[in-house]
Amino acid sequence: MYLAKVKSPEQSKEPWDYLEIIKTVKGEDAFRPVSESKCPLLKK
User: Fold this and answer.
1) Is 21 helix (H, G, I), strand (E, B) or coil?
2) Tell me, what's the pLDDT at 12?
3) How far apart are CA 18 and CA 2, in angstroms?
4) Amino acid 14: pLDDT
5) Which residues have CB under 8 Å from 12's CB, separation 6+?
6) What is the DSSP letter of 8?
7) Where are the domains of the chain?
8) Mind listing the pLDDT tens digit for each residue in 1-44?
9) Helix (H) or strand (E) holding 2
10) What is the pLDDT of residue 23?
11) What's this model's pTM, rounded to 2 decimal places?
12) Which branch of life, at top level (predicted)?
C-alpha cells in the first residue's frame, strides 16, 4: 500500500503524472489482524 500526495498541475510532467508516492506502508501496519476483525464473513 502506498501513501500518496496529489501533485499540482505545475508539478505534473505527463497527462497521467498526478501522484507523488510519499511512503510505502506494510500490510501489517495498514490493516488490523484478521483475529481482531469484526467482519462476520471472516468469522465463518
Assistant:
1) strand
2) 96
3) 14
4) 96
5) 18
6) P
7) 2-35
8) 999 999 999 999 999 999 999 999 999 999 999 889 989 998 76
9) strand 2-6
10) 97
11) 0.60
12) Bacteria
